[in-house]
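Batch job 17 of 40 flagged for manual review because the log was empty.
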Amino acid sequence: MNNKLFVGNLSFKLSEAELESMFGEFGTVVSCSIPTDRETGRKRGFAFVEMSSQAEAEAAIKGLNGRDCEGRQIAVSIAQPKPKGGGGGGGGGGGGRRY
């Protein structure tokens, strides 16, 4: 199990500082990021928070999963690693001659 958490269903108004403070109740926050849309710059409604230990990550999940945050019930779980490499397209078939 890793120490990186996925936090879903966040308010678009929540700042990284507020999120870090919330998770800080359960231990040391190593990193905290709220991704934004590349085109609009708007927050995407989820975040990643890394705690300093597995025990702290588990405590944060138990303490915060389902908790109300600015009118929204947040979901906290262990972050799943990004799949490596994306399969490319299937490639086109050769336009061979028909006999």
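Reviewer: the log was empty due to a logging misconfiguration, but the result itself is present. The CA atoms of residues 33 and 87 lie 27 Å apart. Unflagging and moving on to job 18.
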